[in-house]
């Protein structure tokens, strides 16, 4: 199946909503249809995109309205459309719900509307999205570790695997369809970004999925995949963990280390500049006293690497 925009039927009442090219903000979502009710996995980065997605799902949910919305994590491209899923119970991990309250859409609106160099920087990443007028709609139910849901007679297992990409990442496993919705535990064709870490937690999450009975894997960004896609992400994270640790132990600065690491086969993935955030996260996990740059500087570094790339 090609990487085309829109709703893709996976079989067994499962669907994926895909948004090429999978880069910054172009996230995927999922739909699991049970007997009389459905579950939505994630909303999109703004109201226009989310409304378009929900409209595409109308035929699929005609006899099974969306009663539950799961947000896999706190990044806005997976939750800023929540207000449009009227009447649904919204579920996230406790850590994700806490983190969601810290990054409201108004913050991204302010950054992308800022004058001068700052606004230019953030528009280069997020200029395609409309953050004004979003009512930040937070989870109504939270959990820790695991939560089993009954979706119209179907089991959906929510498994907290964070902190990894963010503080509270969750995957949604549908055993009867051998399908998993990974949120941003998988970026396919793009470079994973490790905001929270440690990388070892994320590697463990990949190992967990590799041990599951799954055929279809719906990533948070990029085309549909299978276990081969999980292995690629695991290999990238292991590579960065190893290379960054060696430079940390040699006393190299984190930003110098990021620029020094040759990405070998991983350099052709989109958003390769994310290596700077990932290396910084390794340093922070090795040295609790390591001070990471603020988020604006993190984006400056990524932009600098990609301009150079």
TrEMBL record:
Residue ranges of domain Metallo-beta-lactamase in the record: 26-221
SMART domains on file: Lactamase_B
Transmembrane segments: none
InterPro entries, A to Z: Metallo-B-lactamas, NDM-1-like, RibonucZ/Hydroxyglut_hydro
Name of the featured protein: Unannotated protein
């Amino acid at each position: 199946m090609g990487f085309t925009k829109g709703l893709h039927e996976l079989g067994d009442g499962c669907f994926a909503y895909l948004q090429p090219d999978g880069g910054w903000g172009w996230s995927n979502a999922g739909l699991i249809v049970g007997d009389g009710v459905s579950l939505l996995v994630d909303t999109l980065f703004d109201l226009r995109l989310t409304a378009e997605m929900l409209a595409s799902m109308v035929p699929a949910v005609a006899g099974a309205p969306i009663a539950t919305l799961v947000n896999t994590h706190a990044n806005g491209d997976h939750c800023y459309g929540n207000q449009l899923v009227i009447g649904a119970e919204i579920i996230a991990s406790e850590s994700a719900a806490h983190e969601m309250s810290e990054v409201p859409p108004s913050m991204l609106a302010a950054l992308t509307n800022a004058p001068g160099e700052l606004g230019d920087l953030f528009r280069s990443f997020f200029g395609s999205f409309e953050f004004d007028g979003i009512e930040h709609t937070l989870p109504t139910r939270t959990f820790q570790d695991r939560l089993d849901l009954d979706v119209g007679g179907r089991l959906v297992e929510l498994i907290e695997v964070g902190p990894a990409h963010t503080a509270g990442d969750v995957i949604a496993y549908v055993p009867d369809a051998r399908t998993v919705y990974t949120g941003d535990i998988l970026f396919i064709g793009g470079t994973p970004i490790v905001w929270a870490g440690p990388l070892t937690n994320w590697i463990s999450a990949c190992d967990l999925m590799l041990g599951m009975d799954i055929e279809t894997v719906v990533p948070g960004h990029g085309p549909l995949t299978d276990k081969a896609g999980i292995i690629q992400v695991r290999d990238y994270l292991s590579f960065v963990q190893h290379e960054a640790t060696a430079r940390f132990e040699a006393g190299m600065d984190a930003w110098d280390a990021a620029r020094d690491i040759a990405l070998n086969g991983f350099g052709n993935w989109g958003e390769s500049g994310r290596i700077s955030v990932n290396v910084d996260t390794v340093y922070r996990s090795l040295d609790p006293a390591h001070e990471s740059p603020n988020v604006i500087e993190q984006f400056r570094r990524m932009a600098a690497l990609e301009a150079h790339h």
